[in-house]
């Protein structure tokens, strides 16, 4: 359940307050007075059997006594009364309520009783234990906040009532207005994902800000956040940043994948900008909503104080910002308008006596540099120049907060003399900040949002042809482990699983005794200078900790001695541990290789998470790792590498040649694919993975599984992001032309221009209600880069040429009950059954996905489409809109 009936809460025309009171200091009195005093123009009915009148209005004993059906109920009564009130409201015809009352818990059964009362009519509940709901544009203040918020275009979702009221207070002092404020409370029913779905389509909301403490339904949350982030900035604070997952883990990854790092990865993939503080939250809203994400954020700084400019650079670099390099042409132009003592570099120090004319010339010149994406203008108060005059000069250049089409951020330092300058800049629509740190953070937010938006567009495959999948081989290994009642694979088993997914491993010989170790060493030493002997024990995970690994062995006898020494150390340090044998391997010596770690662990909220970073025995001490959510592709795997410090070392330095990046990416993709294929995976370490110019090799590996789940088929339902739905491909022939029908991929964007060029203007008009064949790059990305949890598109490709021949598309509502379909076949290929086949594939998919019905809007003159729909079993209804439209509907379930 997501947005069903929520419109009654978000746009009510009448409100009934249960527990409305005249008692001084009671929550019922505060809530009722807030609604009345706020100026809500709809009906307001107090409900309380104790009173005949509240605040001069007739008071009703029960819901059944109300003179009408309230759109929204507001409940402020004792917890034991709430389930019955919900049932009465539902019987009355109401479909939504804000339950401010606390104390409805799972332990006392009241929470479940309330939900049971709501379920038959899909009655929606915000709360319980909430400060309330505020909709400033309609002057509804349905809660006990200490003040009403002013109307605006920012929506606030908060899982903390105290934070919500604090932000309302802060916003009043900073002239910030809201379209919606929802205090979510305990989220027994309506959660943050539901609200994101409502706000994504709310035309009054320009940006969404969130205070999060927990995320109860991660796949729904990410899917809703992705839908919202497509169309407007979504910015979040997530508290508990330093809470760590349990350290007692069988793998390094379990210790390193702190919960907050996984939250970072999840918000990033959802296209959400994460900030750390409440003040930064609204600064981020101002800049991102005003300018949108930037592909690059190379900053040009103009300042009348060199020290302030240097400070801004420090803050910019600390935030992973990029200082632009001035072009020779820009330097020459600045030479012509600035004193000879100017800095001749970026930051452009125009000297402390700069008059407004100098500011204007410098800012205009810097903004015109093609190598600059953002302009930061600073002013320090001096006795030789007027901050107010400088502000007016900059403001005169700006249009919609930009100069020469580039975002302009300003920082007028000081208090008394700077205040008027900041006001002039803000009145001109220019973003203004009080400190260099705030301005640098704003630049960082623009570039971070851009990175998140790029990640938002990636939905990798659950069975990519680019990634080797040895599912059958690995399944056999997992079944053998499960049959023996084990959870942890031996090292040879783990390495065999990695090899099946295309991750290179050295040859491993399993020996059961020191004598067998000697024999294996003798053979391996014929092709290797040295060998390694490792302990095999299901009871000991980290072998190096007890001396269970011996390196650089040059002869067979020494190998046997090494095995005996390992056994002695095990008996001394862990006498209860079983020794299953020894792994004998060639000693891989790669002088300039970097030691990496790859791994996965299960996050309690977001499910499988992938770790990458610097590996080796000191991996926890180095703590140079990054986290991503699977599934990955080449772009996302590359982003993961680039988030680490060792990622820069892998690019090469001094005498070190660059490592084979594609081999590292392939290893990450192989790991990702194994996670997609096997829901039974619990955790994994590949440490170290050696990487150099020759490729990668996994020297050690640990894999833990859940034996009872070995035979569960993929794709893994625990993934927070639904992967590309492989398995929905089929062949189709029409005469001599053969087609491959499959789900759409992001790479299919390259096929659209030729496809659209071969659609007649009339067909375009029938499909898009417009004959234009011009589509923006952003629109094409939205058509090809889908969230498969809600949307699907099938493409038909000509087998011989690979050209796009037709598309069928499905867009599901957030409730996953109804979906809108669309169909378009290239004009020269119509009339041969391809449209019918694409529609059949769409219907089969919708049935398998549990969608109840599909429907579409068709122009009445599109007789061929309507005829096909009737043959397929659709019902056709003409819409009374005067536009000649018809609705085609097919009931599936």
Automatic annotation (TrEMBL):
Under InterPro entries, the record lists: Acyl-CoA_Synth/Transferase (IPR051538), Acyl_CoA_acyltransferase (IPR016181), ATP_grasp_subdomain_1 (IPR013815), CoA-bd (IPR003781), GNAT_dom (IPR000182), Ligase_CoA_dom (IPR043938), NAD(P)-bd_dom_sf (IPR036291), Succ_CoA_lig_flav_dom (IPR032875)
Q: Tell me which EC number(s) this protein carries.
A: 6.2.1.5
Q: Which UniProt keywords apply?
A: ATP-binding, Ligase, Nucleotide-binding, Tricarboxylic acid cycle
Nucleotide-binding: present as a keyword of the record? yes
Ranges in coiled-coil conformation? none
Enzyme class name: ligase
One MF term in the entry's GO annotations: acetate-CoA ligase (ADP-forming) activity
The keyword Nucleotide-binding appears for this protein: yes
Pfam families, sorted: Acetyltransf_1 (PF00583), ATP-grasp_5 (PF13549), CoA_binding_2 (PF13380), Ligase_CoA_2 (PF19045), Succ_CoA_lig (PF13607)
Q: Which GO terms describe its biological process?
A: tricarboxylic acid cycle
SUPFAM superfamilies, per the entry:
Acyl-CoA N-acyltransferases (Nat), Glutathione synthetase ATP-binding domain-like, NAD(P)-binding Rossmann-fold domains, Succinyl-CoA synthetase domains
Residues in N-acetyltransferase domain copies: 739-893
Q: Which CDD domains match?
A: NAT_SF
For this entry, the protein name equals: Succinyl-CoA ligase [ADP-forming] subunit alpha
Organism the protein comes from: Aminobacter aminovorans (Chelatobacter heintzii)
